[in-house]
Amino acid sequence: MSIPDLPNNHALAALFITVLALYLFRREDTPLETSSLAVITILCLLFALFPFYVDGNHFEPSSLFFGFGHEALITVCSLMIIGHGIVSTGALEPIGRYLAKLWKISPSLSLLLTLILGGGLSAFINNTPVVVLLLPILINVSLRTQTDSSPMLLPMGLATLVGGMTTTIGTSTNLLVVSIAKNMGAVEFGLFDFIQPALIASAVAVFYLWLIAPKLLPNRTPSMPDTSPRLFSAYLNINEESDVNDKTIAEIIKLTDGQLKIECIQRGPDYRNIIPLPDTVLVTGDRLKVHDYPDRLKEFETVLGATLFSGLHKVDEEHPLKADKQTLAEIVIIAGSGIEGQTLQQANFIRKYAISVIALHRAGKAMETGRNSIGNTRLKIGDVLLVQGETEQIDLLKAKQGMLIIDGAESLPQTSKAPVALGTLLAVVVSSALGILPIEISSVCGVLILLLTKCLNWEEAASALSTQVILIVAASLALGSAMMTTGGAEYIAQVFVALSYGLPPGGILSALMLLLAILTNIVSNNAAAVIGTPIAISVASQLNLSPEPFILAVLFGANLSYATPMAYKTNLLVMNAGGYQFSDFMRVGIPLILLMWITLSLLLNWLYL
């Protein structure tokens, strides 16, 4: 079968913009929101400056904005708000508490149950809060039993991705695929319409993640191997022989290259506190209260010619530095944290919450940045702040809505509103599953219930929304519309069928799923799915077959984002918490992709062709 002739110029332009979009979505130096807006703008300019007619009718460029009001986007946003309500009310707390107890009885059985629970919860709510719920439990188990956490964390993270593909609301990718299929008149999927192949494949994946994946993972050192404090409070006593007598605070800070941070100065026989202003002059007997790393404190002692005290005693082997009631924690930057897109200084974060920021982890690694510049680094979703503070302060942060804290303890906040939030989610799912209300309407009703019952306020609901998700969904829908209208999707389908000539329909379906599986680990899974769905429908049309299995091949393929830490945001969280390397995801993820691809290909052939 020969390769078809090139399509019209608008189709070629749409295909070029699609390739450009996939390139932009992969660039780390350009925000995904900017890339998405650029794609929409370029598409609109193309059809505004060079009009396109379909069967004599003018294609309106403004129709490319319909994605902002699309039912899929409305559903995605509503479910993000409901998921935020589930987390902020502590509705998942009982699950975490009982699961932590079970780990003390049978670790092997507990890992299996953790995988099943993680996947089951992710079928109905965003998997990010599920991962953050389970991470502290598994880290705490690892610390308490002195065992390696690497065989637990990565399998758990991947299990939540597996569970997300089982329902139409499990991921935004699923919602986009089924919405586009419905808009194009191909097929309308209910909430559980593809649960049979998804559940069978999920069972295969869970057993792989339980029995095989842990054996493939080497021992790794987690980013937070224990919760022992790393910063210590101490006093620098200014002696008579000290070189900094009669020098100003500004002068001694300059001697330490700007590293010295003085909390207060204690002066006189009653050690009254005075503010360390830049022009304050030091005198013999002053005590400078500082808070820093042990090696840096010793360096300050040498540079200033001072004596380092911890409490009432000079620091020595018998009287080491003290950290009082301080502990370590990790703060995950997610949509709704309130500080994404800002620097710590802009958010006044350190002073507001009375904690110290020790390190910033991005893409699983500590950023190469000095301590002074962490506060000036613009934070991204998926970043993890390693912080230290008093135990009570960390507990307050846990209870604060919108903050996701990992500190190696399984305690979670819970409020009296938790049953209302859980009941709301159940009502949304049941009403959609029984066909009483479409999911886009039931989910909006769910948001209204959470607001009326004060499980959330409008500020919290707004913080749960992600401009990144909104714009990538809108841009993907615009791309899909442009490809279908111009015939670009049909041309790609013709090329795909020509290249797979000689294969049976099941082979073409399997090849399409594998193509999407590769694409989703390289670019945005939403973009891959929305581009793939029109192609799947065109392929089915040319083969004179039902489009349903081919659409499902795209949906499942776009969810197989297991092989790289960048393929999905929760992969980055797990990578950081477990101290994993890029190769660990490939070592576990590639066999899982192949296993799921083969299983789902056989199931779709058996059930639909």
TrEMBL record:
Residue span, RCK C-terminal domain: 221-306, 316-403
Coiled coil stretches, renumbered: none
Primary residence: membrane
Pfam families, A to Z: CitMHS (PF03600), TrkA_C (PF02080)
Its membrane topology: Multi-pass membrane protein
Transmembrane segments: 6-25, 37-53, 73-92, 112-138, 158-177, 189-211, 420-452, 464-485, 491-519, 550-568, 588-608
The protein's name in its UniProt record: Citrate transporter
GO cellular component terms, A-Z: plasma membrane
InterPro entries the UniProt entry points to: Cit_transptr-like_dom, DASS-Related_Transporters, RCK_C, RCK_C_sf
Assigned keywords, A-Z: Membrane, Repeat, Transmembrane, Transmembrane helix, Transport
The organism's place on the tree of life at top rank: Bacteria
